[in-house]
Design brief:
52% of the residues lie in helices and 13% in strands. The chain is α/β, with parallel strands linked by helices and 305 residues long. It has a domain of 147 residues: 3-Layer(aba) Sandwich (Rossmann fold), CATH 3.40.50. It has an eight-stranded mixed sheet with strand order 3-2-4-1-5-6-7-8, sandwiched between helices. Helix 3 runs antiparallel to helix 4 and helix 4 crosses helix 5. The longest helix has 19 residues. It binds guanosine-5'-triphosphate (GTP) and magnesium ion (MG). Magnesium ion binds next to helix 6. Involved in targeting and insertion of nascent membrane proteins into the cytoplasmic membrane. Acts as a receptor for the complex formed by the signal recognition particle (SRP) and the ribosome-nascent chain (RNC).
Length: 305
């Protein structure tokens, strides 16, 4: 499947939602104030957020003064270009260390998709012939190690784990040592889901980051906050609190396939100013893509397949 096609499919619910509504209000040649107001409401409903919505509508207003927008396709072209521009403004490619191992720590609230996303990232690397170790630093939830072990076996990653209830910092320590000793290309650290409001759990997270940083120079190369794309504005407030405790370098936006509100990626870009690095668009192990501004922008307004 082509790269763009995956985004088109993964964002199908959102693009259908947007296109169905826009079709109802669009009249060729007439980007009126009324149209812009309606468009604003449509974008806000798709979780695009106030700032990005205003920026998109303003640029459309300016563009329509320069030329008539004769068809819906022309309108989508303009919207796609603007959305891409918003993503481009804060885009940062995924950080990969020149010296092995590269280390990513995944954090986020319960059920956001951390463990599954770890398996998917591992698969992306392993498919390129790389060696991946996963660390089961979620020692909090009873079946967490087992769940990660099953995924690790399925995708061909090695796993470092301790017993249930062990110190997650100690798991991170062992995993960092193992990654160095076994010359892994990538170390992925799974962490327990936590309410972002629980102070002690946030301290635990800081410790995991510290341990990894001490053992491996330059690590962690990414601290990825996993946000369930269906949780809307709540996802944004989670992100703010996490970012106060740890230096979140990127977002993994999951479950976009189940959401008609994929516009949340724009709210994240505009309001959090943290780049999205991965997007999850399905439960399968291949349903994760490295974020791409153009592919995402096109997917948001594409006709579907
Ligand atoms: N449809 C869909 N489901 C997803 C996606 N990513 C994760 N899920 C599902 O979300 C559920 C929770 O995923 P986990 O990976 O266990 O989430 P977690 O953050 O590790 O959860 P805790 O360890 O309990 O905090 C699972 O049923 C996954 O299959 C996605 O991109 N699309
Ligand atoms: Mg988990």
């Amino acid at each position: 499947m082509s790269f763009f096609r995956k985004f088109t499919e993964g964002l199908a619910k959102t693009s259908k939602n947007l296109r169905d509504k826009i079709q109802e209000i669009f009249r060729p040649g007439a980007v009126t104030e009324e149209f812009l107001e309606d468009l604003e409401a449509i974008l806000l409903q798709a979780d695009v957020g106030v700032r990005a919505t205003q920026e998109i509508c303003e640029s459309l207003r300016l563009e329509s003064k320069k030329r008539a927008i004769r068809s819906e396709d022309e309108l989508y072209e303009i919207l796609t270009a603007k959305v891409k521009e918003i993503f481009d403004a804060i885009y940062q490619p995924l950080k990969v260390s020149e010296v092995n191992p590269t280390v990513y720590i995944l954090v986020g609230v319960n059920g956001s998709g951390k463990t599954t996303t770890i398996a998917k990232i591992a698969k992306l690397w392993i498919d390129q012939g790389k060696k991946v170790i996963v660390a089961a630093a979620d020692t909090f939830r009873a079946a967490a190690e087992d769940q990660l072990a099953i995924w690790a076996e399925r995708v061909g990653a090695e796993i470092v784990s301790h017993q249930h209830g062990a110190d997650p910092g100690a798991v991170a320590f062992d995993a960092a040592r193992a990654a160095l000793a076994r010359k892994a290309d990538l170390l992925l650290v799974d962490t327990a889901g936590r309410l972002h409001t629980k102070k002690n759990l946030m301290e635990e997270l800081k410790k995991i980051v510290r341990v990894v940083a001490r053992e491996i120079p330059g690590a962690p190369h990414e601290v990825l906050l996993v946000i369930d794309g269906t949780t809307g504005q709540n996802g944004l407030s989670q992100a703010r609190v996490f970012a106060e405790s740890v230096d979140v370098t990127g977002i993994c936006l999951t479950k976009l396939d189940g959401s008609s509100k994929g516009g949340i990626a724009l709210a994240i870009a505009k309001e959090l100013r943290i780049p999205v690095k991965f997007v999850g668009m399905g439960e399968g192990v291949d349903d994760l893509k490295v974020f791409d501004p153009e592919a995402f922008a096109r997917g948001l307004f594409s006709k579907g397949s």
